Amino acid sequence: MKILTVASDPNRANILIDGCRRFGVEPVVLGVGQPYPNNVIKLHYVREAIRGLDEPIVFLDAYDVEVVKDPKAMVIPNYVVFAAERYCYPDWNREADYPAPPFDTPYKFLNSGCYCGPSQLLSHLLDPLELQGHSDQGIITQAFFAHPGRIRLDYEQQYFHCRNGARILEVPDTFFVHYNGGSWSAPYAHVRS
User: Fold this and answer.
1) Which residue intervals define the domain PLOD1-3-like GT in the entry (predicted)?
2) At the fourth CATH level, which superfamily is domain 2-192?
3) Cβ neighbourhood burial of 22 (10 Å; 0-12, 13-18, 19+)
């Protein structure tokens, strides 16, 4: 398994990087020292980094993700999984288009800040995409609707927990916490120990 992130300034990614290292995992930091015009650049870097690889991949946003459980214990599925969040962003008007989750959950919308899957399937997803605009989440959301079944959402928060809109004491058994949408607060791991 390879953990990838994109950070033009890795000093700002210390919570993620140190969290990975605490579990003996060295994340691959892409884009160090390079311009960061918008979030679409993350898809460019990942697409290039995984081309030709044959191994499980985990991608995590660099500046707002915390590692709360040993990533080496993850069983990466044989399909592509994106984090699920409580809000439909950036295309609020697509909320009704999302398929109903298999059970009642407020986490039913795609979040592109955390995802995992086999490198070949991720390449198959990313290679044909036109990576233009400003929103990586918008691009992946379009792919989600254009190719039903190619992307699954982590409704159970098995891998990724998106905090934006979550209740304070909501603590699922997950590997990574994503403080998306400005939901960053005191580090989360102490709540679980």
Assistant:
1) 2-166
2) Spore Coat Polysaccharide Biosynthesis Protein SpsA; Chain A (3.90.550.10)
3) exposed
Residues with Cβ within 8 Å of residue 18, at least 6 apart in sequence: none
Q: Where are the domains of the chain?
A: 2-192
3-state secondary structure of 21: helix
- The predicted model scores a pTM of 0.93
pLDDT tens for each residue of 141-190: 999 999 999 999 999 999 999 998 877 666 689 999 999 887 665 454 43
Query: pLDDT digits over 45-102, tens only?
Result: 999 999 999 999 999 999 999 999 999 999 999 999 999 999 999 989 999 999 999 9
**Cβ neighbours for 106, distance < 8 A, ≥ 6 positions apart:** 86, 165
Contacts of 167 (CB under 8 A, 6+ apart): none
φ/ψ (deg, to 5) at 58: -125, 125
**Contact criterion met (CB below 8 Å) for 114 and 61:** yes
- Rounded to whole angstroms, how far apart are CA atoms 112 and 79? 15
Show the CA angle centred on residue 138, arms to residues 134 and 142, nearest 5°: 135
pLDDT of 183: 67
Cα distances (angstroms) measured from residue 147 to each of 16, 33, 56, 125: 31, 34, 21, 9
